[in-house]
Write a structure and sequence with these properties.
heterodimer, A: alpha/beta, D-Maltodextrin-Binding Protein, domain 2, 2 domains, three-stranded parallel beta sheet, B: MetI-like fold
Chain lengths: ~325, ~270
């Protein structure tokens, strides 16, 4: 009898995928003359402005790609979405992808995502303290509490890099996981001594008197590639032509966004709820068309030093 | 219950529970206005009522808001409908087939407390970030509400009535129609009301976390964009949705169960002022 209930539940669970199987799944080439439907999992943040801009400029449609952008809360949704074939491509930070590769997830990076500006003091994220904090440098964070959005991920790696570079000991620092929107309040109330917010929260915290003490993206590596677009090995082998076209369209989008920051700012107001007057004040990331391999190597070796990665990642297999 | 706690106004000039409810809302709104204004909490993180109200007025003028509201209502409605039908069918089968209840009890008690939210990774793996992923959470959570209520309802059948039905050799279908269904109906209606709240919670949760289109996703986007007043405005809308749903299902309950002693008692209490 229990088996019957289980069978009923399993049957219910099977019905829906059967129904979704009827939609055009672009993991196989589209019929001739029809554009490939491509669904990309992104996060509604500044970093992905180029793909929105590229879509509106027709860089994807002219390559026969019918692009849908789906916003998700983060890698926890996007990585399984790409693995399961719901998304053909996804946007993720580099450390998440290195960690996924270490677990032998069959992922392949196809294209650059966004980079640090490379300018110390003017980047889209920084290590911040409240206005009246006595802390002036990352070296003074020994034994202090630092808020980052996700533990054991890219923010922790780059903040540790900042502390090490400034002469502090990152091993003594207590990292606290906290969503970006909470960081300003946590700094003000003294709940944490420092935090690593990115835009638009960096500018918001500055507006409340907060101070940046280090540009952690810059401290981690010169012109660091922070995030990239990736796909599944399965799509790479089943439809290499689509992957190539997506990569080309993405490169054109990145180059265009990097050359036209005003248009990038405008498009940000369409997929976020950041208003035009706020977006004008934010520091945008850089969007080079090509991945900065050296920066990813540097990031990987720091993640190894911190014990986040157990072994030297196979970058040749991960990166294009 | 509020009907018994509040003395009805004998003059009949004002419906007192409504008046008291309105007073409660006003007190809450004034408190929320004062807390940030007095500096107890920074207005940046908790805007006063007036700011939230302005943001709400702005929201209702945007087409995205109405699309999101529609998406939320569709996900909620489909999820609730599937859970209610599945819960009633499974409940009647498990409750009436001899031995089935005992055989499934431990399985149900094991599956029921699993928080739907814990199934998000599975939902995303199976269905991506679309409506199906959130529907899976919604149905999973509200199905148990229904099933358990229906099972309780069936147990409640009067043994004398059951024996009588057997003596008169009513068919299984007739027993379900004339004996089990009327007994279980109040439980079913309560189950639907409870399931509706749970389904709404899980709809918004799925949209927030998975990114299924709807109010929840709008809340998440507002949060990531540091747009605090619109975020609270949307939260208020989700609260209002829950309130409307509860009132709606209570009204249906009164209609459907007008004959039932539980409803008649409430009415008589209200009339006699007990």
């Amino acid at each position: 009898m229990r088996r019957q209930l289980a069978a009923l539940l399993i049957a219910t669970a099977m019905l829906a995928p059967a129904a979704c199987g009827t939609t055009n799944q672009p993991n196989t080439p589209a019929p001739p003359g029809q554009p490939d439907k491509v669904n990309v999992g992104v996060i509604a943040i500044l970093d992905v402005a180029p793909i929105y801009l590229g879509k509106s400029k027709g860089f994807f449609s002219k390559r026969n790609i019918d692009l849908t952008l789906t916003t998700a809360q983060g890698g926890a949704v996007i990585v399984p979405g790409v693995m399961g074939g719901q998304f053909q491509f996804g946007f993720s930070n580099v450390v998440s992808l290195l960690l996924a590769k270490e677990q032998n997830l069959p992922l392949k990076v196809v294209c650059n995502g966004n980079n640090s500006t490379g300018v110390d003091g003017t980047d889209f994220g920084s290590l911040m303290v409240k206005g009246d904090s006595p802390i002036k440098s990352a070296s003074e964070l020994n034994g202090k509490k630092v808020a980052i959005n996700t533990l054991r991920n890219i923010a922790e790696t780059v903040v540790r890099a900042s502390i090490r570079k400034a002469g502090g000991d990152p091993k003594t620092v207590q990292f606290v996981e906290m969503p970006f929107p909470n960081m300003g309040a946590a700094l003000q109330s003294g709940q944490v001594d420092a935090a690593f917010p990115v835009e638009p929260f960096q500018t918001a915290i500055r507006g409340q008197g907060g101070r940046s003490i280090a540009s952690s993206w810059v401290d981690a590596a010169a012109n660091l590639t922070v995030a990239t677009y990736f796909t599944s090995q399965q799509l790479v082998s089943s439809n290499p032509d689509l992957v190539n076209r997506f990569t080309e369209a993405m490169k054109e989008s990145l180059a265009y966004a990097d050359a036209h920051p005003d248009e990038a700012r405008q498009i940000i107001t369409t997929y976020t709820t950041i208003t035009a007057d706020v977006v004008a004040k934010l520091t945008l990331p850089k969007w080079p068309a090509d991945i900065n391999r050296a920066s990813i190597e540097a990031l990987a070796s720091q993640a190894m030093t911190d014990g986040l990665l157990k072994q030297q990642p196979d970058l040749a297999a991960l990166l294009p | 219950m509020s009907q018994t706690a509040v003395r009805p106004n004998r003059a009949g000039a004002l419906p007192t529970p409504v008046l008291f409810g309105a007073v409660g809302v006003v007190i809450a709104a004034v408190t929320l206005e004062l807390v940030p204004r007095l500096g107890v909490v920074s207005a940046i993180y908790l805007p006063p009522t007036s700011t939230i109200a302005r943001a709400l007025v702005e929201q209702v003028q945007r087409p995205e808001f109405w699309l999101a509201l529609r998406d939320t209502l569709v996900t909620w409605g489909i999820g609730l409908a599937i859970a209610v039908v599945a819960g009633i069918v499974a409940g009647v089968v498990i409750g009436t087939v001899p031995g089935l209840r005992a055989a499934t009890a431990s399985t149900i008690e094991f599956l029921r407390p699993i928080p739907s939210v814990a199934l998000i990774p599975l939902a995303v793996l199976l269905y991506g970030s679309g409506i199906r992923a959130t529907l899976m959470l919604v149905i999973y959570a509200s199905f148990w509400q229904m099933l358990v209520q229906v099972l309780h309802g069936i147990v409640d059948v009067d043994p004398v009535a059951r024996d009588t039905a057997r003596s008169y050799r009513l068919s299984a279908a007739a027993q379900i129609r004339y004996l089990i269904w009327p007994t279980a109906l109040p439980y079913v209606v309560t189950g639907i009301r409870l399931a509706a709240s749970v389904a709404l919670i899980l709809t918004i949760t799925g949209e927030l976390i998975i990114g299924t289109p709807g109010l929840g996703r709008q809340i998440a986007v507002s949060m990531e964009s540091n747009s605090v007043p619109p975020m609270y405005a949307l939260v208020v809308v989700t609260g209002l949705l829950g309130l409307v749903a509860n009132q709606l299902f209570r009204a249906i309950e009164r209609q459907v169960l007008a004959w039932h002693p539980s409803q008649r008692r409430e009415l008589s209490e209200a009339v006699s002022g007990l």
